[in-house]
Write a structure and sequence with these properties.
Layout: H1 2-25, E1 30-35, E2 48-56, E3 64-73, E4 79-84, E5 88-91
Antiparallel strand pairs: 1-4, 2-3, 3-5
């Protein structure tokens, strides 16, 4: 019976530390999805776009704390997806943003 407790404890410990290790490697990206339209309000289907993202804190007039760019391709409905924080950094550090 004592061996069963040790085995159960070992399995729980492996599960806990395995989950902790996976979570420690996960970045806190922000998923973003948009629909691209041209100046005539037509969908931009199957187009490659360069998207720039700037994060500010406090107000719309505040200085950019972080900037990045993404190259995305729209689908047949003009939809594109990206993860803020995983683009090419153009200034600032995503890991050091003042989220609080």
């Amino acid at each position: 019976m004592k061996k069963n407790y040790v085995l159960i404890f070992a399995v729980i410990a492996i599960m806990f530390f395995g989950t902790f290790m996976v979570q420690a490697q996960q970045k806190n990206f922000i998923n973003y999805q948009g629909v691209a339209r041209n100046s005539e309000n037509e969908l931009m289907e199957q187009e490659t776009l360069n998207i720039s993202i700037a994060l500010k804190f406090g107000s719309a007039d505040a200085a950019d704390q972080y900037k990045e760019s993404h190259s995305v391709t729209t689908d047949a409905n003009g939809v594109f997806n990206l993860q803020i924080g995983s683009g090419v950094s153009n200034g600032g550090s995503y890991d050091n943003l003042p989220w609080g």
